[in-house]
Amino acid sequence: MTLRLALIALACWPAGSSDVRRGAYLVHHVARCADCHTPRDPDGRPLPDRTLQGAPVPVASPYAHWDWAVRAPAIAGLSGWSDEDAARFLMTGIVPRTGREPRRPMPAYRLSEEDAKAVVAYLRSLK
Predict the structure, then answer these.
(1) Is the CATH code 3.90.1200 the one for domain 3-39+50-57+69-125?
(2) What would the pLDDT profile of 69-83 be if each residue is shown by its tens digit?
């Protein structure tokens, strides 16, 4: 996330809102995680009953030598992740298990601790 997007998100977010609501805002309106992590119908429309349940990556690598993911994993519920590892990943852009950045096209986010914990709270709240 760019500094500009982060500042816009903070400026637009109502003070005193819950972490889950803040996380939902960041996931859906700032980082737009559903663009890759939600499956789509044959016409390209997201399937609302499968939001953030994982999907084929909608774009191919522009370079043959890049390590490019072919599927965006399910992130609803954060199965297989501890809250600490998920927050650390969102704050550092490094996958704790591998010590590397995520496979492209996933961005290596650098969220604040507050934003990372809000995103984790929201994703954890999903089934």
Answers:
(1) no
(2) 999 999 999 999 999
